[in-house]
């Protein structure tokens, strides 16, 4: 504790920078970092090394090896590279490894070396080959920028939604630029490149020459450039040894520093803290590391071995063969508490707590001093904030004890910030463990959010730790434990050395009826892995038929899908399966399947009545359902046919079907309708007018109205209309005509079977 500030290095009068060790690396590299393509993901992400790249290869027969490590140096994956020459490596925001090949093809691998997909950067890149590439991150996702052999740039701002943009040509560019980078301004990706003493900015429409304001004279070339983590600031290293720092828009200069070294650096990255006014750039050569900013002096470190810089939100990670370190600006709260002779309220509270543990009266003196100044609340807040920025657990505990001690003397201090900090630090200490290897700082953790952190633990298959964190933070099950268990189950189905029965049982025992878990999603993953039987077993645990059926259809288990749909009682779901079966099976097999499912058969008949009448006819024939077949022909004679011959033929088919169904009444009625249709057609031909489709009674009435009483009487005799009904029909028709003479003759023709009172009533 006494030497706590020994590794603090001042940069000017207002800021300190410190470098501390994250891990001692035990990854046993067989080659130097300089002989490998290296890519490290931000936010404490993994490290990828491609050993023996082609540009260093001496023996063409030796294939390079792609290795992926955690930030603590633990191996995650290793695979022999069997594809083409690789120009650049980089990590996406989802921690997928992007490998840019010389032919413009980008191969995407998972954290554990599993191949995900590939895409091409276009034919022009394929023809001209790739000279250099950058993987960058924007608010839309992760992008790729390519420099081709024709010295043209092509980029895509989001590899998840690939849209290639060919950037404008740089006038007079005959060779590769000395340095270049990507900028993100106004939600658009740009390319900034240096050609000799000139800088050019490429956007989607034009190439513009730009000049940094206040640049020292005598610059003939830019050797290196770096954009900050948030794309707000830019640094340029010139051949004169000057480092220009300003805004990324190149409209404002922040400062300029002469490092007196003209050799081009290996790397140059920004090192700044969110909401800090200090701006610093870290520059690395073979054996020297320099931190420069708006101060006449710089901070210098000696590098004992090859090192690689990884820019972060609030600092820079530096790893080599043996160590992994973090360099950052000391936060304000830590600086006020720990700097020598500090009288800040947080420093006094920390001293008071130490003296209290020693049972010294000085504790009371320090507390009184803070309280007299009215700064006890500020002191507690300072200690809580400083604890978040400490990497060592013993320092975290010391500061939190001081904060807890100070809270005891405050009446109304809200405990939320203290409790939340304790929870956050417990989570951070768990993931910083060597065997986990995610060295997040408090600022990075808050920027990343707990949900993304859980996703990254799941990606590393650290399911128990992820579940413990969810339970500790009491996250809602749907967002926490349920989601993680679902990911675990999807990974479990990929273990092909375990039987389907054992895997399904293990998943069900672990998941049970956990809310938010979809067995159908897990079954879909099993099917995607080629384990169809396992997928079917898992679907048995899925309570929602609407989720079971689509996957069963996809797996070509249509009959099982039909059974599940019928069990659900959802007619729309049954119709979906029936239409799928109809397209999948031949007609005979389809009908046989329906015969075994009465409910499905009934629903399909209803569908056919409105959509497919011929199929309905085939169904009745298949089932020997002559009664329904006769009814079908009756409807068809009225609905489809217009010619009398066709209608009579349909009615004849109906009569035959009724006879087979032993329905004598229906058969006789159908034959009478056939006779009536023929007679009506003959009447139309002979008398004119409309008779077809009239009923028997209406036909008789129409004949009487037309003055064809004899024909009406003959029709009545042919169809055996009773006399009473015929007299009523004739009486009503003659009364409508007001043909009273004919009505009188009709009444006297013979004795009326209906009496004479109706005649009197109609006449009146």
From TrEMBL:
| One Gene Ontology CC term in the entry | early endosome
Q: Which GO terms describe its biological process?
A: endosomal transport; intracellular protein transport; vacuole fusion, non-autophagic
State the taxonomy lineage: Eukaryota, Metazoa, Chordata, Craniata, Vertebrata
Question: In the UniProt record, does the keyword Mitochondrion occur?
Answer: no
The cross-references to InterPro entries, in alphabetical order and at most eight, read:
VPS16, Vps16_C, Vps16_C_sf, Vps16_N
Residue ranges of coiled coil: 349-376
The entry's protein name is Vacuolar protein sorting-associated protein 16 homolog
Q: Which gene encodes it?
A: VPS16
Membrane topology category = Peripheral membrane protein
Subunit and interaction comment: Core component of at least two putative endosomal tethering complexes, the homotypic fusion and vacuole protein sorting (HOPS) complex and the class C core vacuole/endosome tethering (CORVET) complex. Their common core is composed of the class C Vps proteins VPS11, VPS16, VPS18 and VPS33A, which in HOPS further associates with VPS39 and VPS41 and in CORVET with VPS8 and TGFBRAP1. Interacts with RAB5C. Interacts with STX17, MON1B. Associates with adapter protein complex 3 (AP-3) and clathrin:AP-3 complexes.
User: Chief localization class?
Assistant: membrane
Where does the chain cross the membrane?
Answer: none
């Amino acid at each position: 504790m006494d030497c706590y500030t020994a590794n603090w290095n001042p940069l000017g009068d207002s800021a300190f920078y410190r470098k501390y060790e994250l891990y001692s690396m035990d990854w046993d590299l067989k080659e130097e970092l300089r002989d490998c393509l290296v890519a490290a993901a931000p936010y404490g992400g993994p490290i990828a090394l491609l050993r023996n790249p082609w540009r260093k290869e001496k023996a063409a027969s030796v294939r390079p090896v792609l290795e992926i490590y955690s930030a603590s140096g633990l191996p995650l994956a290793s695979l022999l590279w069997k594809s083409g020459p690789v120009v650049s490596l980089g990590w996406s925001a989802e921690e997928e490894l992007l490998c840019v090949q010389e032919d413009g093809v980008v191969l995407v691998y998972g954290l554990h070396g599993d191949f995900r997909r590939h895409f091409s950067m276009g034919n022009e890149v394929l023809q001209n080959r790739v000279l250099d590439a950058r993987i960058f991150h924007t608010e839309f996702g992760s992008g790729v920028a390519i420099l081709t052999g024709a010295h043209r740039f092509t980029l895509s701002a989001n590899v998840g939604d690939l849209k290639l943009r060919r950037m404008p040509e740089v006038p007079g560019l005959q060779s590769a630029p000395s340095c270049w980078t990507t900028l993100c301004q106004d939600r658009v990706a740009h390319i900034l490149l240096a050609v000799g003493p000139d800088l050019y900015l490429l956007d989607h429409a034009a190439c513009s020459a730009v000049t940094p304001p206040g640049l020292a004279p005598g610059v003939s070339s830019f050797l290196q450039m770096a954009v900050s983590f948030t794309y707000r600031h830019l640094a340029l290293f010139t051949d004169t040894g000057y480092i220009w720092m300003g805004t990324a828009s190149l409209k404002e200069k922040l400062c300029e520093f002469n490092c007196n070294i003209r050799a081009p650096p290996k790397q140059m990255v920004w090192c700044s803290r969110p909401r800090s006014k200090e701006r610093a750039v870290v520059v690395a050569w073979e054996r020297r590391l320099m931190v420069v900013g708006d101060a006449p002096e710089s901070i210098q470190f000696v590098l004992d071995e090859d090192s690689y810089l990884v820019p972060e939100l609030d600092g820079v990670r530096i790893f080599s063969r043996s160590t992994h370190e973090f360099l950052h600006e000391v936060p304000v709260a830590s600086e006020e508490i720990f700097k020598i002779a500090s009288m800040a309220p947080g420093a006094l509270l920390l001293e008071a707590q130490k003296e209290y543990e020693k049972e010294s009266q000085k504790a009371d003196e320090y507390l009184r001093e803070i309280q007299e100044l009215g700064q006890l609340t500020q002191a507690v807040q300072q200690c809580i904030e400083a604890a978040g920025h400490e990497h060592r657990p013993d320092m975290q505990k010391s500061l939190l004890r001081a904060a807890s001690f100070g809270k005891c003397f405050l009446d109304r201090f809200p405990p939320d910030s203290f409790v939340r900090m304790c929870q956050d630090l417990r989570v951070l200490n768990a993931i910083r463990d060597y065997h986990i290897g995610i060295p997040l700082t408090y600022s990075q953790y808050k920027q990343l959010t707990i949900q993304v952190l859980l996703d990254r633990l799941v990606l590393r298959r650290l399911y128990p730790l992820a579940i413990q964190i969810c339970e500790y933070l009491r996250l809602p099950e749907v967002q926490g434990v349920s989601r993680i268990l679902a990911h675990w189950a999807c990974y479990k189905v990929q273990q092909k050395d375990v039987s389907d029965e054992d895997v399904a049982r293990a998943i069900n025992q672990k998941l049970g009826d956990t809310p938010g878990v979809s067995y159908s999603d897990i079954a879909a993953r099993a099917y995607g892995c080629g384990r169809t039987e396992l997928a079917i077993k898992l679907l048995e645990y899925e309570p929602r038929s609407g989720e079971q059926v689509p996957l069963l259809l996809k797996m070509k288990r249509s009959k099982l899908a039909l059974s599940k749909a019928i069990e659900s009682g959802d007619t729309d779901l049954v119709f979906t399966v029936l239409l799928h079966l109809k397209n999948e099976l031949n007609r005979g097999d389809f009908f046989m399947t329906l015969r075994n499912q009465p409910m499905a058969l009934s629903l399909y008949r209803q569908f056919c009545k409105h959509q497919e009448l011929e199929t309905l006819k085939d169904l009745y024939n298949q089932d020997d359902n002559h009664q329904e077949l006769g009814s079908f022909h009756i409807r068809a004679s009225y609905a489809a046919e217009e010619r009398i011959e066709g209608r009579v033929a349909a009615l004849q088919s109906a009569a035959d079907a009724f006879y087979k169904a032993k329905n004598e009444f229906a058969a006789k009625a159908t034959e009478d309708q056939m006779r009536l249709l023929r007679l009506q057609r003959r009447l139309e031909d002979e008398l004119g007018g409309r008779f077809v489709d009239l009923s028997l009674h209406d036909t008789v009435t129409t004949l009487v109205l037309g003055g064809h009483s004899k024909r009406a009487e003959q029709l009545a005799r042919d169809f055996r209309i009773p006399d009473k009904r015929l007299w009523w029909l004739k009486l009503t028709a003659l009364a409508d005509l007001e043909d009273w003479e004919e009505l009188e003759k009709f009444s006297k023709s013979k004795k009326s079977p209906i009496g004479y009172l109706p005649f009197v009533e109609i006449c009146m």
